[in-house]
Amino acid sequence: MIGLLAALSAGVEAHPFQSDEYSYRTAVKVSDEAFVGLVVLEVPIPVVLTSIGVEEGDSGPVKKLKVKKYNESVWDTMGEALTVSIDGAVQDVTWRPISHEMNGKAAEGFFLYLVQTDIPASELPASGYTVTIENTGYADEKMVYSGGASAVEPWSVTSSTADELLGDKKALALDQPGRWTRDDGMRTFAVTVAK
After folding, report:
1. 39-68 burial, b if ≥16 CB within 10 A, otherwise e?
2. pTM of this prediction?
3. Are residues 100 and 114 in contact, defined by beta-carbon separation less than 8 angstroms?
4. What is the pLDDT of residues 87-127, one digit of tens each?
5. What is the DSSP string of 48-92?
6. How many angstroms separate the CA atoms of 100 and 174, rounded?
7. First-residue to last-residue Cα distance in the chain
8. H or E segment and range at residue 130
């Protein structure tokens, strides 16, 4: 899981587009231990500051409470909008905020929100499967997308939405425009893995 987080949030670089655009990044990692899914949402700082509702007379503890409640609402909204399927069968999973120093904090013009889920390998097909993460969150917002998939031997990724929509550019750094797409086909992030 740590390798997945490091790969997805390396440098915690924001997308290189307009400051009013949200972003979603989706990552999948498969190993003999588990399937792990990670989703990162970037929300423009002005949107968050307005939504938090901090007022001029608020004390430090009141401000912290408002930020905490807002962050929890974003993580909940993200989790409710994410559906995981294995070979077409919807899974009963829980998306939860991960422990990362930047989760719920501002960096490079955006607040970052990170949630993950996992399914133990014992509950997955032994020789291969297709995992799909369907994301319906923040559908009315101006959005850019990125993502990636990885596998630990003896597993390998045979196809993914990142391959289809980003091609060779999926290996670029997150601050490179080619690493991103406005194609909302990325909201249905499918990865096929096999041994």
Report:
1. bbbbbbeeebeeebeeeeeeeeeeeeebbe
2. 0.90
3. yes
4. 999 999 999 999 999 999 998 889 999 999 999 999 999 99
5. HHHHHT--TT--HHHHHHHHHHHHHHHHHHHHHTEEEEETTEEP-
6. 18
7. 19
8. strand 128-135
